[in-house]
Specification:
Blueprint lengths: L5 E6 L5 H10 L3 E7 L3 H11 L5 E3 L2 H5 L6 E4 L6 H10 L3 E4 L7 H14 L3 E3 L7 H11 L6 E9 L9 H4 L2 H4 L2 H16 L10 E9 L8 E3 L4 E3 L10 E8 L4 E7 L10 E5 L2 E4 L2 E4 L9 E2 L15 H13 L8 H20 L3 E2 L4
Parallel strand pairs: 1-2, 1-4, 2-3, 4-5, 5-6, 7-12
Antiparallel strand pairs: 7-13, 8-11, 8-17, 9-10, 11-12, 13-14, 14-15, 15-16
Helix pairs in contact: 1-10, 4-5, 5-11, 9-11
């Protein structure tokens, strides 16, 4: 392919940006031309790690957006900044990668959608597990009728996030993190949407949500680090409930259950269960009518979503897909419009805590 490579601006030079940079460096149709962040030293560190030379390193995002060689903006800033960053990139006519969660309010999501629609730029949101090999295998099995008609799905995001994570200080606060479902649990919310729909590249649409919240960490100054299996006291607490559990009804009749548990004392896990009228899935184990005489679970030897480390996440697949969408002028199944539907489940849960009643969707 002789066409000019698409230039990428990485905005935000934290932990996750390392994987955005790596993925765009590996894709043959893109090159990282600029890194912007509030600290120039962070930009320099990311560039040196990746062996990037002669690129723009800046603390001025607005000026970076004016560059003609920038075609794609990767928004890797803290979640409370995603709306303004996305809107600015859209108004500059750039295609946009948006880290999750995309926004902290329904109003912000609507403004983002309006800006992207007006600019007619391509977007993708980093629900990166859609490119996890187990997720891809299960979706293909669903499309191939291995499970028959799906009637119930469940996914759980179990990760005791704490100060070992560089983004914890903003994420733990109610005004910037909002809720456990938004900060990390939205991955599990997106998973039940993904598995509730048999079509391979489509997610189901929710129509009703009921939820509870609880747990023990809200306001507690004790902290557990599952990487080192150690405890600390006098630490900054979570300002919202660390446990949320939601029941979701989809428009195709499928029921879903999803939880996020920041209070769990154990390593990170992401259990999955899917039930159809011809088979079932429990993580990477399958029981199906496709296997006559089956006497034990069929184990799929693949990569599971069993790590919170961003280096474990399949960003390469996500970015390759997005570049393909730009080059072929097509929309991603994981674009901003679709991601809003996932986020609405998290916001519906918050409404349910206030009213104690089921919440109808859509909210916007």
């Amino acid at each position: 392919m002789n066409q000019k490579k698409l230039g990428v601006l990485i905005h935000g030079a934290g932990w996750v940006s390392t994987q955005h940079i790596k993925a765009f460096q590996t894709n043959p149709n893109t090159e990282v031309v600029a890194i912007s962040s509030r600290r120039w030293e962070s930009c320099k560190e990311r560039a040196e790690e990746a062996g990037l030379e002669n690129i723009l390193l800046t603390t001025n995002f607005s000026e970076a957006l004016k560059r003609d060689d920038v075609d794609i903006v990767s928004v890797c800033t803290p979640q409370q900044l995603h709306p303004e960053n996305t809107i600015a990139a859209a108004e500059a006519g750039k295609h946009i990668v948006i880290e999750k969660p995309i926004a902290n309010s329904l109003a912000e999501m609507k403004s983002m959608r309006d800006a992207v629609g007006k600019a007619k730029v391509k977007t993708i949101v980093s629900f990166v597990l859609r490119w996890n090999p187990l997720f891809q295998t299960i979706k293909r099995m669903e499309a191939d009728d291995v499970l028959g008609d799906i009637y119930f799905v469940e996914a759980d995001y179990q990760s005791n996030i704490a100060s070992w994570w560089s983004g914890y200080e903003a994420a733990r606060k109610r005004d910037t993190g909002i809720s456990a479902f938004l900060v990390g649990g939205c991955h599990a919310v997106d998973a039940i949407r993904w598995f509730a729909e048999k079509e391979e590249y489509k997610a189901a649409t929710p129509v009703e949500v009921f939820a509870y919240s609880g747990g023990w960490r809200k306001g507690a100054d004790v902290e557990y680090n599952y990487y080192t299996n150690t405890w600390s006291e006098g630490m900054p607490p979570l300002e919202y409930d660390g446990l949320e559990v939601a029941l979701v009804k989809f428009d195709n009749g499928v029921l879903g259950k999803v939880s996020v548990n920041f209070d769990s004392i154990m390593p990170y896990t992401f259990p999955i269960e899917i039930f159809g009228n011809k088979g079932s899935v429990k993580d990477n184990r399958v029981w199906s009518h496709k296997y006559p005489g089956q006497s034990d679970w069929v184990n799929i030897p693949t990569i599971l979503p069993d790590s919170s480390d961003v280096t474990h996440h399949p960003f390469q697949g996500q970015m390759d897909h997005f570049v393909e969408c730009i080059l072929e002028d097509k929309e991603s199944h994981c674009n901003l419009e679709d991601a809003i539907i996932t986020h609405e489940i998290a916001f519906a849960a918050l409404q349910c805590y206030e009213t104690g009643k089921p919440v109808k969707l859509p909210l916007i």
